[in-house]
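Notebook, bench 3.
Goal today: get a predicted structure for Cytosine-specific methyltransferase from Paenimyroides ummariense so we can plan the truncation constructs. The sequence was checked against the plasmid map this morning, with no discrepancies at the termini. Length recorded as 346 residues. Pasting the sequence as submitted so the record is complete.
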Amino acid sequence: MNVVSFFAGAGGLDLGFQNAGFNVIWANEYDKEIWETYQKNHPQTVLDKRSIVNVPSDEVPECDGIIGGPPCQSWSEAGAMKGIEDKRGQLFFDFIRILEAKQPKFFLAENVSGMLLGRHSSALENIKEMFRNAGIGYELSFEMVNACDYNVPQDRKRVIFVGIRKDLGFKYEFQKPNFPKLTLQDAISDLKENVLPAKTNNKTNGNNCVIPNHEYMTGGFSTIFMSRNRVRSWDEQSFTIQAGGRHAPIHPQAPKMKFIEQNIRVFVPGQEHLYRRLSVRECARVQTFPDNFIFHYDNISAGYKMIGNAVPVNLANFLANTIRQQILENEIQNQIEITTNELVTA
């Protein structure tokens, strides 16, 4: 089955679908800092570099599915929480515009859990209704999932919308995963060596990295960062990998940060040298990108942004596999019913 991808970013969602047997034939991404990374890691996919606002629906290829994660900053609990009033929140409407025009068999949209906050309830219901009524309409399934349950070594709550075109006659059912919990030990323990601090002004070390992208952002830590413990132990799962490098979790070699008083913590005195941010490659591992997926950037912050904004590959793969399975099972069942009816009337 062929799919097209919007707000593709580096392509974590796309890679998960590719690994599940889908063909990602076309993708759309507006951020020029990402283009090289996407194109070199997805050489078989045509990359459209316009804003979705400027993409006419008739220039989007015919497809079986549309996938994407409309920008989440406007819904984020850490942001201004303007929701649909923010122009970035309104990009949901362009996603639906193209969905309505193309009428694929299914769609998947991913977003942050912040959109479930009460202040966004009316906007969320409006979006859900627009999904249901797009074209001939879609049977909508909607659930908040935690990536930690999907073979991803990270606490990461996200909202997933899956729609099945109504004429297919069934509704997607979220499947319960049955994976053992992956830890930081499982994910990054073999990357203890060869890590490099970024160059001056957090420029990349480039080809000097023995392991591609195994470099970390340097510089101070904000009072907001220091207000909470940012260290998870080797036997725990990572905190959420965020899009900002300065907010990257601390490497598990460090002891948990010392509590001073409410909203104030410090690095354990005498152990300060152990407190470094996870490297770009370590963050990629936590997001379940394979090591042969190379991120291209000049400033290391762009690497963290690409990874933090991505859908974890293993989560995407699980969802893609269940969508594919349910569509194929439905097609088989429909064919059985047609054959049975033909035999009865013969």
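Helices lie at 12-19, 32-41, 91-102, 121-132, 184-188, 280-286, 300-308, 313-345. The radius of gyration is 22 Å.
Flagging this for group meeting.
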